[in-house]
C-alpha cells in the first residue's frame, strides 16, 4: 500500500511539466508556480512561500506588467507571507508599492485597495502601532460594509481584526460590540448551527467572560451547546466539550450547582460510552471533584 502523494512534490512536478510543455512565461506556468507556493504554505514552510512568491511577483511583473490584476494580487500574497514570517518592514514596503500602483491606475476604486489596506492595518497591529491599526481597520471596515454589505465574509474579517485592535488598547466594549455584530451576521448568512457561527459565538463568549460578564458568557455557551446538540449526536466529543465549557463558566461565576450538574451529565455519558478508564472520563471526574471542592470552600 502506497502512501499519499506529497502535495509539494506534486506541485513541483506540475510546474516542471508546464515549463516543459508551455514555456516558463506562459500564464498557466505562472499559475503552477503560485500553486507551489500554496502547497508550501500548507506544509508550513513559510520561508519557501516567501521565496517562491517573490519569484512569482518578479515573473508576473515582467510577463504581465506591474499593474496587471494577477501581479497586484501576488504583491498582496507576498506581503501576507512576509508578515507570517515576521518580516514586517519588508511586508510594508511591498504593500506600499502595491498600493501606489493601484492608486495610480485611472479606474481604481476603493474596492480595489481594500485587501492591501487590510494587510497594511495588520502590519501596523503586529508592529505594536495600535492607534494606526485601529484607524486603518476602521476605514477598511467602513468601505467593506458599504461596498460588500454587513454580512460579507471580508466585512466580518475586518470586524474581527478591528475588535482585536480595540482589545489591545483596552476598549473592551467596542470590541464586544463588533464581535456581537459578527455573530449576528453569521447567523443571518449561515444559520445558528453553522460551524463558523458557533466559532464566532465562542469567541464572543470568551471575550465577554474576560470582561466580567459571566452571565452573558454562560448564555452564549449554553446556546453553543444547544446548537451542537441539534446537529451532532449527544455523545459526540464536541457536544461534551461544549457542555464542559458551560460548566467551567458557571463555576467561575460561582454557580456551582449548575456547574456540578453539567459536569455530572458529561461524566455519565463518558463513563457509558468510553468506559471508566478512558483519559477523557478520568479528566471529567477530576473536573467534577474540583468543582465540588470549590463549592465547599466558597
Give the overall average pLDDT: 94
Instruction: Could you tell me the CATH topology label of the domain at 7-102.
Output: Serine Threonine Protein Phosphatase 5, Tetratricopeptide repeat
CATH superfamily of the domain at 7-102: Tetratricopeptide repeat domain
What would you say the CATH architecture of the domain at 7-102 is? Alpha Horseshoe
Organism: Pseudoclavibacter chungangensis
Pfam families: TPR_10, TPR_12, TPR_16
InterPro entries: NLR-like (IPR053137), TPR-like_helical_dom_sf (IPR011990)
Protein name: Tetratricopeptide repeat-containing protein
Model description:
It comes from Pseudoclavibacter chungangensis. InterPro entries: NLR-like, TPR-like_helical_dom_sf. It holds the Pfam family TPR_16. This is Tetratricopeptide repeat-containing protein. With 298 residues, this protein is an all-alpha fold. Among the domains are: 7-102, Serine Threonine Protein Phosphatase 5, Tetratricopeptide repeat, CATH 1.25.40.10; 111-187, Serine Threonine Protein Phosphatase 5, Tetratricopeptide repeat (Alpha Horseshoe). It has helices spanning 7-22, 27-42, 46-63, 69-85, 88-103, 110-126, 130-148, 153-168, 172-190, 195-210, 214-231, 237-252, 256-274, 279-296. The mean pLDDT is 94.
Amino acid at each position: 500500500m502506497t502512501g499519499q502523494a506529497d502535495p509539494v512534490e506534486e506541485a513541483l512536478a506540475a510546474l516542471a511539466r508546464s515549463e516543459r510543455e508551455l514555456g516558463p512565461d506562459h500564464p498557466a506556468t505562472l499559475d503552477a508556480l503560485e500553486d507551489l507556493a500554496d502547497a508550501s504554505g500548507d506544509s508550513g514552510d513559510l520561508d519557501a512561500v516567501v521565496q517562491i512568491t517573490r519569484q512569482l511577483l518578479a515573473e508576473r511583473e515582467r510577463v504581465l506588467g506591474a499593474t496587471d490584476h494577477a501581479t497586484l494580487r501576488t504583491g498582496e500574497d507576498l506581503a501576507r507571507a512576509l508578515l507570517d514570517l515576521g518580516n514586517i518592514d519588508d511586508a510594508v514596503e511591498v504593500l506600499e508599492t502595491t498600493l501606489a500602483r493601484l492608486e495610480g491606475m485611472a479606474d481604481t476604486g476603493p474596492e480595489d485597495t481594500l485587501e492591501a489596506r487590510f494587510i497594511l492595518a495588520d502590519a501596523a497591529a503586529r508592529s505594536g502601532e495600535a492607534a494606526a491599526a485601529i484607524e486603518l481597520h476602521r476605514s477598511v471596515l467602513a468601505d467593506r460594509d458599504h461596498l460588500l454589505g454587513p454580512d460579507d465574509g471580508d466585512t466580518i474579517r475586518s470586524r474581527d481584526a478591528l475588535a482585536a485592535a480595540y482589545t489591545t488598547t483596552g476598549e473592551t466594549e467596542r470590541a464586544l460590540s463588533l464581535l456581537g455584530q459578527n455573530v449576528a451576521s453569521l447567523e443571518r448568512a449561515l444559520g445558528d448551527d453553522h460551524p463558523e457561527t458557533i466559532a464566532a459565538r465562542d469567541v464572543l463568549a470568551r471575550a465577554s467572560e474576560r470582561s466580567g460578564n459571566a452571565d452573558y458568557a454562560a448564555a452564549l455557551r449554553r446556546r453553543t451547546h444547544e446548537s451542537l446538540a441539534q446537529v451532532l449526536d449527544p455523545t459526540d466529543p464536541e457536544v461534551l466539550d461544549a457542555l464542559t465549557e458551560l460548566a467551567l463558566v458557571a463555576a467561575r461565576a460561582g454557580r456551582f450547582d449548575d456547574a456540578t450538574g453539567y459536569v455530572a451529565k458529561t461524566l455519565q455519558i463518558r463513563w457509558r460510552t468510553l468506559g471508566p478508564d478512558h483519559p477523557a472520563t478520568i479528566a471529567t471526574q477530576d473536573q467534577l471533584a474540583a468543582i465540588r471542592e470549590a463549592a465547599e470552600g466558597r
